[in-house]
């Protein structure tokens, strides 16, 4: 599925996927979720390297691998991730590969039949029957899981779960507030439940979202159109504020709410991505006077080789319901409609099955 130019409708085209070179793999895609970032690519909000090959939340089966690839082999069931980390840079060596300076995604060579080079979304491009990626972008997981469920760990759901369990280090008995309960926020709720949080307070401006958050594990809900969420979170936590507050909207007012809704020694985890012009003014005395930590979370600070198989195992054991994030499965030619539904807030995830 190609985004041919700024704001033009997406369309299906025949593409040429070359054989994998050294360090590369060709993956037969089985499922790929529709994410806001795909829409941003289509709208020209990321860069102008049209045409884009969209799709980046994917799972499938390795079809062929290049010379020297030993970690994955043809036939392996894998989840794709958008950063193949180097394992050698300062960030990798310090155990923070999510900040890797030298990612090794495949140098893209996929084209249209007339030779036009394609730019695969986030180095993946998986709204396609096959795609070329770096072998390091493939993580093997238990093939018993449905592909449409597995693929979701490739982006938004991992970002949310990871915000809770990796960045926020939510612990047993903690109180957690999640501001913004779309796909990412709901995944943070599920992550907080998984980590044993005692109280999980979901905040949103849309009651439908709060109902879903409850089904994901929220113990309390606050509609922040009607109620001041900072006051409500304090009240629900004995006057202190939450141990961990996760912001999953990306707006100044919700960043502010997150800042003030935490316990003095609590942690704020910022997952929502703001736009360049957004600013937030805070009294310095409030910044100084509050201890704790202010952290941003990149891709859930995940380590795919550690986190993907673990979360799939928990799902297969019935301890984490990743299937709850799949609102509908669709065909490739329904992506445009899925963008509209996503825009209206009607779905958590539409997943293309191939
Ligand atoms: N206060 C509370 N909730 C809000 C507010 C607000 N002022 N404004 C919007 N929301 C809610 C929406 O109702 C919706 O439920 O935030 C949620 C956002 O969800 P989605 O649009 O589905 O976005 P999602 O995919 O969850 O991503 C959220 O995380 O990774 C980032 O780039 C991503 O910035 C985005 C954020
Ligand atoms: Zn590195
Ligand atoms: Zn995404």
Question: Your description of this structure?
Answer:
It comes from Streptomyces virens. This is S-(Hydroxymethyl)mycothiol dehydrogenase. Residues 5-354 form the Enoyl reductase (ER) domain. It is a single chain. This protein has helices at 36-42, 90-93, 147-150, 156-167, 183-194, 207-216, 229-236, 252-261, 284-289, 304-316, 335-343; strands at residues 2-3, 15-16, 24-33, 52-53, 57-65, 77-80, 111-112, 119-120, 130-134, 138-140, 175-179, 199-204, 220-223, 242-247, 262-270, 293-296, 328-330, 350-353. With 354 residues, the chain is α/β, with parallel strands linked by helices. Strands 3, 5, 6, 9, 10, 17 and 18 form a seven-stranded mixed beta sheet that branches. A six-stranded parallel beta sheet has the order 13-12-11-14-15-16, with helices on both faces. Strand 12 (199-204), helix 6 and strand 13 form a beta-alpha-beta unit. The longest helix is centred in the C-terminal third of the chain and has 13 residues, at 304-316. The model has no long low-confidence stretch (mean pLDDT 95). One zinc ion (ZN) binds at residues 35, 37, 56-57, 155-156.
* Main sheet record: 7 strands, mixed
Q: Helicity range of the residues?
A: 25-40%
Sketch the topology as an H/E string, one letter per element.
EEEHEEEHEEEEHHEHEHEHEHEHEHEHE
Structural class: alpha/beta
- Give the overall average pLDDT: 95
Instruction: Name the shape in a single word.
Output: globular
Number of strands: 18
Structure annotation, total helices: 11
- Could you give the distance between the termini? 12 Å
Which small molecules are bound?
adenosine-5-diphosphoribose, zinc ion
Low-confidence stretches: none
Q: In what range is the share of β-strand residues? A: 15-25%
Radius of gyration: 20 Å
